[in-house]
Design goal:
5-stranded mixed beta sheet; 4 helices
Length: 169
């Protein structure tokens, strides 16, 4: 049986690797930040991908229209200080994560995930500063939609018609 989320995840992973070389680790978000043993396997800066919710409506037969949200969580080790007395070059290092976030946004916004869905639209960007691990965490949420014909595979088959001859008015 075909699935939508597997090729979507792999396409997202590839797109980020190609467009944001600063990212050193891309995986599904399975709670790595909450557990020391999993967090130890993560290289920073990192991207964790999740599909937190998808709503579906009927098209025809068993086909469905899915409206999905994609969360891209960016995780940065604290590189440098950003307090007001720090030198500009120290602050630049401390704020570098904003530049990486912008690159991720630029790679995702308007991209159709290799034809898997409608172009992604950023719907939210938020900080997650209430973590107790001392990391800088930013979450970008994108929305998209797709048509799921996996249960009606035989019913929606591509057909090619060939015509040879003349058309008489």
């Amino acid at each position: 049986m075909e699935t939508y989320f597997k090729p979507l995840f792999l396409a997202l992973q590839k797109r980020i690797m190609e467009n944001v070389p600063e990212i050193r680790f891309i995986d599904q978000n399975i709670g790595q930040l909450g557990f020391d043993e999993y967090r130890a396997m993560v290289s920073f800066p990192a991207v964790l991908v999740d599909f937190p919710s998808t709503s579906f409506s009927a098209l025809s037969g068993n086909a469905q229209l899915g409206i999905s949200f994609i969360e891209i969580t960016l995780v940065f080790a604290p590189y440098s200080q950003t307090y007001q007395m720090a030198s500009d070059n120290v602050k630049d290092l401390g704020l570098q994560y904003f530049e990486i976030e912008q690159k991720v946004f630029a790679a995702m916004q308007g991209w159709d995930c290799e034809g898997l869905c409608t172009p992604l639209i950023r719907t939210q960007a938020q900080s997650q500063n209430n973590n107790d691990i001392g990391m800088r965490v930013r979450k970008l949420t994108f929305s998209t939609s797709f048509e799921d014909y996996t249960l009606d595979h035989d019913e929606y088959r591509e057909v090619e018609f060939k015509f040879s001859g003349d058309i008489i008015p």
